Amino acid sequence: MSKLTHFNKEKRAKMVDVSEKPATHRKAVAAGTVKVNAETFKLIVDGVTPSGTSGTNKGDVLAVAQIAGIMAAKRTPDIIPMCHPINITGVDITFKPDKKRSRVDITATVSCVGVTGVEMEALTAVSVAALTIYDMCKAVQKDIKIGNIRLIKKSGGTVK
Predict the structure, then answer these.
(1) Which of 92, 105, 135, 143 is catalytic?
(2) For the chain, which terminal residue's Cβ has fewer other Cβ atoms within 10 angstroms, N or C?
(3) What is each CA distance from 12 to 8, 18, 19, 77, in whole angstroms?
(4) pTM
């Protein structure tokens, strides 16, 4: 069994020392879903999300979620305690509305050239994009489900 790397000899939290690792091109892809009802799905796809009883339009849910996800990837070390600050070289978030299942599938791809991977940044981007969809739609639906957030693939980290 592998040991957990974020603990020191005293079993206290530590940030892993990556100073001896070579810088390589790294990429991570994460995904997740937001399940809504048919009415909420239509509002999301149409880009019109009313806010509770006021009925004001909160705007294009997916556009806001995309920006929130990108910002979250960039700020991951601020919210995940042992993550290293990384010079991210790219973040792309895509949304695939699935009318049949009344859900939005989210994929985030994050890349960098560095000594540690960007898995946490990709997972954080998906999570925050999903939470943003939830936040913007909660006034019209109370039982939105966020789920299946996972790492799809990662690459880099080996010297070629």
Answers:
(1) 135
(2) N
(3) 5, 18, 20, 19
(4) 0.90
